[in-house]
């Protein structure tokens, strides 16, 4: 969706070729011929992940099929001091799996076995390449499912979910990956096998599992995950509420939570989005509403009835201009179809769109939406807003034409300003997509020098040579300095109250 | 030296002075709040760094489901503020005394009966402000539910027992108090209780806590108490469902509240009356683990968290502890000497060591490097947590 305008020219070609030959020779004894790729026609599919704006060709791509192979590959790379970029399904949206021109891409896609399903303990042990949705499909007959449901769940892998601490529509009630993973088996850069967490409720020592989850593939390569399964609710129903102004919609979100209700899902779309998706899915959205809220309740039929009634009352008191409640499963899915198809609908409106991912406290939702409206004028670009309102996680979709280089830069600046606004409103630059390469500069806005140093301390504790997915997520001092200079306009640094370097 | 985000709070400056002085003289500081859990973890006699002067709720907006407070804030003030807005700390941290502090609860990382369904204390920590061993005040995480900017350092603190950094402030997710609760009790053998609890947990039943108390010496009947919590309709419909499997008696709400509080605070007889040379052992075990019998059998044993946390008293000697650790290890868990009797050598190791677990050498090295990164001079190297 984003133009191929950021291909980095390869450095010293001859040196790269020599290094490539050396690496391929070293890896050949470990992998079958088909599992080691280095010709450009074979490696080009790996030049980027879901963030296609940032691309780079790797030295080679390894596709191991066993944990032992992963360990051996890492030992070879460690000995040769070659960086390794772990990669799952490649659906990440922040360039976390973008290759390094002098590094290896380590694809975990072939490790896709569901090793064990235990209905009694409500757990599943799976390899990292297993798709998120495949876990729920495999345990559906037991009345169980895996709760975290990122939008890409049909394609994204559980190993990637661990690295990004993925969430989704249902994480307000059921938690993120962190809350649903008991144990991660992984391999450090030197090839050593380690286990974080356990099947018991806690483990001896410091809680390293907590820091490995969400570490963007920079600390260890995931080779096995034990996930928690939860009982599938008997019923789910959704309320679709319209509001004639943004503030009322934002206040309604806060009112639901303040009433002591934690909905199974609480999502919001602005007018531009509902108009874009209605044409696409014909869900019967109120096209005059400034914002639409989707509030889902799940549980036993009695529970759902009680919660739907309470939520309806709260939404009415919050000034909803219209309320519809799904009467059956097909209508529930219809109501959701627009939210689920917001991204493809955006793709129909413009040649390209840039999907952002910031989080703010719920009470600031309306403030941020108003600011984004002003930014649309400032940058001369339209923006659709769909988001997980229940947890304040925004996904503004900035529409632009990638064929126009200047317009892409405007879109980038627009996105950066949204993220800076999120930090200013006590939020964060990324809720669930990760920092990767995309948001590495805005890390300098959110964190000061001491925090940055501590992040490097964590990185070095796991990977002292800094070879595993290097130069992602955690900026260097020089990068922050450069970014600071870059963002100074009229002699003023954005958010001067934040200490940086 | 950079001090992270600028803060002119005099109390924070005082902490910094104390930490920098300790770094210079290379004498560790033992961080302590109310001292209600001073007995927990390996003991030491290092100089105390008292957190209680840095106290107060900094921000609490019920509709955000987040409370931010200073480490020295009394835990009872936090729970009282939440109760006023009908909200709770769902992991039910034990206080173990009047003076328990917010920071102490986080550093101990302990959770009460609600942990089995609500999640661990660490699951609810959203952000933290700490002071590292270099005297830098640093902020990690934040006040929002979803945040993947940088490594999740704030979640490394729960259970670290003050061995990594000084916690200054923390933001913790809270939840609404369940609309309805009911406590049911019945008599049945341990194995049957464990089977039923795991079966119920896999069904849409609002099971929020469980406790079986009995003896391991034979297949004797014990007393199972379970708590249902959730929507009124959910609790109401679950009771006949459970009674269709086993006859239970519903406890009077006051009796029920007292029971769960006593369990959380370890005031039931299974925890109290510790002999001088005895230890209260804690086992953390996977869900599938059935009844475990020690060679000498135990008269009183308490099983919480559907059997994943088990408590009993046994002699403190190393041979007994080794046997208990091995038993837990075989079943995929670990053991600790949770609380020791007054005549037990205080220098005795309290926890299962990493080296006693599989795949541990690499993790030991990672932990050591992590500690060195946050605390290069060893200011917090009190070894309360090995």
Task: Furnish the topology, listing elements before pairings.
The complex is a heterodimer of chains A (501) and B (386).
Chain A: H1 13-27, E1 36-37, H2 40-43, E2 60-62, H3 67-80, E3 84-87, E4 104-107, E5 114-118, E6 123-126, H4 132-139, E7 144-145, H5 158-164, H6 171-174, H7 177-180, E8 181-187, E9 193-197, H8 208-212, E10 221-228, E11 230-231, E12 235-243, H9 246-258, E13 265-270, H10 271-281, E14 291-299, H11 301-317, E15 322-325, H12 329-340, H13 342-349, E16 352-355, E17 358-359, H14 365-379, E18 383-388, E19 393-400, H15 405-424, H16 443-446, H17 449-462, H18 477-487
Parallel strand pairs in A: 2-4, 3-4
Antiparallel strand pairs in A: 1-2, 5-6, 6-10, 7-11, 8-9, 8-10, 12-14, 12-15, 13-14, 13-18, 16-19, 17-19, 18-19
Chain B: H1 10-25, E1 29-32, E2 47-50, E3 57-61, E4 66-70, H2 75-84, E5 87-88, H3 102-108, H4 115-118, H5 121-124, E6 125-131, E7 137-141, E8 166-173, E9 175-176, E10 180-189, H6 190-201, E11 207-214, E12 221-230, H7 232-243, E13 249-250, H8 253-264, E14 278-284, E15 301-304, E16 309-315, H9 318-330, E17 334-340, H10 361-374
Parallel strand pairs in B: 1-2
Antiparallel strand pairs in B: 3-4, 4-8, 5-9, 6-7, 6-8, 10-12, 10-13, 11-12, 11-15, 14-16, 14-17, 15-16
Quickly list its features.
heterodimer, A: 501 residues, alpha+beta, 8-stranded antiparallel sheet, 5-stranded antiparallel sheet, B: alpha+beta, Uridine Diphospho-n-acetylenolpyruvylglucosamine Reductase, domain 3, Biosynthetic Threonine Deaminase, domain 3, disordered N terminus, FAD-linked_Oxase-like_C (chain B), FAD-bd_PCMH-like_sf (chain B), Glycolate oxidase subunit GlcE (chain B)
């Amino acid at each position: 969706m984003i133009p191929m305008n950021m291909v980095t020219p390869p450095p010293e070609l001859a040196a790269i070729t020599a290094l490539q030959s050396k690496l391929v020779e070293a890896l050949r004894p470990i992998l079958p011929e088909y599992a080691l790729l280095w010709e450009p026609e074979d490696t080009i599919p790996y030049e980027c992940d879901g963030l296609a704006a940032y691309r780079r060709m790797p030295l080679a791509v390894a596709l191991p099929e066993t944990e032992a192979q992963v360990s051996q590959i890492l030992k070879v790379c460690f000995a040769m001091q070659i960086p390794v970029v772990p990669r799952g399904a490649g659906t990440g949206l922040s360039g976390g799996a973008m290759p390094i021109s002098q590094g290896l891409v380590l694809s975990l896609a072939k490790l896709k076995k569901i090793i064990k399903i235990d209905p009694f303990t409500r757990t599943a042990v799976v390899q990292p390449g297993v798709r998120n949705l495949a876990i729920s499909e495999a345990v559906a007959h037991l009345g169980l499912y895996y709760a975290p449901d990122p939008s890409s769940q049909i394609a994204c892998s559980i190993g990637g979910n661990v690295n990004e601490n993925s969430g989704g529509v249902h994480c307000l009630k059921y938690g993120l990956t962190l809350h649903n993973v008991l144990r991660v088996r992984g391999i450090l850069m030197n090839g050593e096998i380690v286990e974080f967490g356990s099947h018991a409720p806690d483990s001896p020592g410091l809680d390293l599992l907590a820091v490995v989850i969400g570490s963007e593939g920079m600390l260890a390569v995931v080779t096995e995950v034990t996930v928690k399964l939860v009982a599938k609710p008997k019923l789910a129903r959704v309320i679709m509420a319209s509001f004639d102004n943004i503030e009322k919609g934002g206040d309604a979100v806060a009112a639901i939570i303040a009433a002591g209700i934690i909905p199974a899902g609480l999502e919001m779309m602005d007018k531009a989005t509902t108009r874009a998706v209605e044409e696409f899915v014909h869900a019967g959205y109120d096209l005059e509403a400034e914002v639409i809220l989707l509030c889902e309740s799940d549980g036993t039929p009695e529970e759902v009835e009680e919660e739907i009634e309470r939520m309806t009352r709260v939404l009415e008191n919050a000034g909803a201009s219209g309320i519809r409640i799904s009467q059956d499963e097909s209508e529930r899915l219809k109501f959701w179809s627009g939210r689920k198809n917001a991204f493809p609908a955006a793709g129909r409106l413009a040649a390209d769109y840039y999907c952002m991912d910031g989080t703010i406290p719920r009470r600031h939702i309306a403030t941020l939406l108003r600011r984004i409206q002003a930014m649309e004028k400032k940058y001369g670009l339209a923006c659709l807003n769909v988001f997980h309102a229940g947890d304040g996680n925004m996904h503004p979709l900035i529409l632009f034409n990638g064929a126009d280089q200047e317009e892409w830069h405007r879109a980038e600046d627009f996105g950066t300003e949204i993220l800076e606004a999120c930090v200013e409103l006590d939020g964060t630059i990324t809720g669930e997509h990760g920092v990767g390469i995309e948001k590495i500069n805005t890390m300098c806005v959110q964190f000061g020098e001491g925090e940055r140093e501590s992040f490097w301390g964590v990185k070095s504790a796991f990977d002292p040579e800094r070879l595993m997915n290097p130069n992602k997520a955690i900026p260097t001092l020089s990068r922050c300095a450069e970014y600071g200079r870059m963002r100074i306009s009229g002699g003023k640094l954005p958010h001067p109250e934040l200490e940086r370097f | 030296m950079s001090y992270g985000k600028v803060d002119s709070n005099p109390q924070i400056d005082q902490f910094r002075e104390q930490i920098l002085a300790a770094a210079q003289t290379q004498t560790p500081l033992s961080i302590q709040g109310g001292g209600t859990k001073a007995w927990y973890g390996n003991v030491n006699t290092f100089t105390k760094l008292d957190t209680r002067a840095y106290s107060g709720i900094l921000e609490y907006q019920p509709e955000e489901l987040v409370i931010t407070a200073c480490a020295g804030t009394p835990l009872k003030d936090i729970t009282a503020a939440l109760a006023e807005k009908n909200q709770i700390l769902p992991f039910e941290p034990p206080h173990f005394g009047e003076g328990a502090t917010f920071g102490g609860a986080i550093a101990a990382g302990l959770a009460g009966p609600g942990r089995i369904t609500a999640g661990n204390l660490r699951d609810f920590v959203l952000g933290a402000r700490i002071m590292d061993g270099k005297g830098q005040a640093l902020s990690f995480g934040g006040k929002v539910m979803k945040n993947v900017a940088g490594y999740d350092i704030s979640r490394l603190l729960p259970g670290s027992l003050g061995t990594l950094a000084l916690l200054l402030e923390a933001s913790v997710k809270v939840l609404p108090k369940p609309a309805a609760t009911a406590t049911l009790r019945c008599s049945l053998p341990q194995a049957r209780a464990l089977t039923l609890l795991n079966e119920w947990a896999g069904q849409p039943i609002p099971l929020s806590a469980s406790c079986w108390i009995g003896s391991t010496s034979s297949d004797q009947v014990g007393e199972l108490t379970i708590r249902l919590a959730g929507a009124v309709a959910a609790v109401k419909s679950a009771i006949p469902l459970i009674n269709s499997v086993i006859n239970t008696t519903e406890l009077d709400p006051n009796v029920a509240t007292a029971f769960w509080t006593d369990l959380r605070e370890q005031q039931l007889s299974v925890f109290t009356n510790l002999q001088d040379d005895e230890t209260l052992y804690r086992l953390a075990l996977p869900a599938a683990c059935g009844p475990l019998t020690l060679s000498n059998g135990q008269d009183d044993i308490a099983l919480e968290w559907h059997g994943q946390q088990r408590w009993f008293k046994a002699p403190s000697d190393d041979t007994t502890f080794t046997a208990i650790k091995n038993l837990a290890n075989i079943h995929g868990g670990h053991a600790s000497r949770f609380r020791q009797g007054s005549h037990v050598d205080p220098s005795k190791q309290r926890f299962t060591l990493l080296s006693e677990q599989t795949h541990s050498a690499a993790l030991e090295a990672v932990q050591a490097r992590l500690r060195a990164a946050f605390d290069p001079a060893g200011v917090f190297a009190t070894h309360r947590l090995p």
